[in-house]
Amino acid sequence: MADDKQVVDQDATGDLLVEIGSGNVFADLDFANPDEEAVKARIVRKIQKVIDERGLTQKQAGDIIGLPQSKVSTLLRGKWDSDYTVDRLTRYLNKLGVSVTYSFKDQPDWREGRLVVID
């Protein structure tokens, strides 16, 4: 996906001035699984939104989802590791009172599908 970036403008020496990203910052930064990382980011943003809407502290949210406050803080700052799978983050949403629905769509030419979050 990183190849989808477009150079918009260069100066006289050829140095990049403006570049339009691919639409996935994780792909632009050459993450190994950019679609999965983008999905995790969307789920974590939803977790933050639910915590805010419910007026929960990070400690209260952690008690609900089974994490210490320090791990909730780290997660909400976008610092997750491989232990935080899409499935695990989805379970946190469920514990916070959010139902998650999966939808399947066949690709017309049977090319590889994508994991997408729509909220």
TrEMBL record:
Q: What is the lineage of its organism?
A: Bacteria, Pseudomonadati, Pseudomonadota, Alphaproteobacteria, Rhodospirillales
Q: Return the Pfam families for the record.
A: HTH_37 (PF13744)
Q: Would you tell me the protein name for this molecule?
A: HTH cro/C1-type domain-containing protein
The entry lists its GO molecular-function terms as: DNA binding
The HTH cro/C1-type domain covers which part of the protein?
A: 47-103
Annotated source species? Skermanella aerolata
InterPro entries in the record, alphabetically? Cro/C1-type_HTH, HigA2-like_HTH, Lambda_DNA-bd_dom_sf
